[in-house]
Design brief:
alpha+beta, 2 helices, 7 strands
Length: 121
């Protein structure tokens, strides 16, 4: 069996190692990327009121879109983020979509908007 790498393989490995060194490696504190979310299982969620989608799991993060109350949306995971207090509910769970996050406070279901507890980003 030939165990040598092609020039393309070496360039690819070199680029990945260089990126990890330049960025200080992979941080466990970062939420999943949109690309990673698309490879995970998909779940249906329904907001009970209009809710903003943010770039990161915090209310001060960049606004991306608004989800309409009563409509069904595809979510991929949940993560811990900024604690939100609204309508007598306090929760730090944020629902992950392909491009951003929304607080689970505004979705029907349990504290994870009915996503399985194992669906953490």
């Amino acid at each position: 069996m030939d165990r040598t790498l092609s020039r393309t393989g070496l360039v690819t490995i070199s680029a990945v190692v260089g990126l990890l060194i330049a960025t200080g490696g992979v941080s466990q504190a970062q939420p999943a990327t949109a690309a990673a979310a698309r490879t995970a299982a998909a779940y249906s969620v329904v907001p009970y009121e209009n809710v903003n989608v943010r770039k990161l799991p915090t209310k001060d993060s960049a606004y991306l879109a608004t989800l309409t109350a009563g409509s069904t949306y595809t979510a991929y995971c949940w993560t811990h983020g900024q604690t939100i207090k609204d309508h007598g509910i306090t929760n730090d769970i944020w629902i992950g979509f392909a491009d951003g996050y929304s607080s689970a406070v505004y979705f029907k279901g349990n504290e994870y908007a009915n996503l399985p507890q194992s669906a953490q980003c």
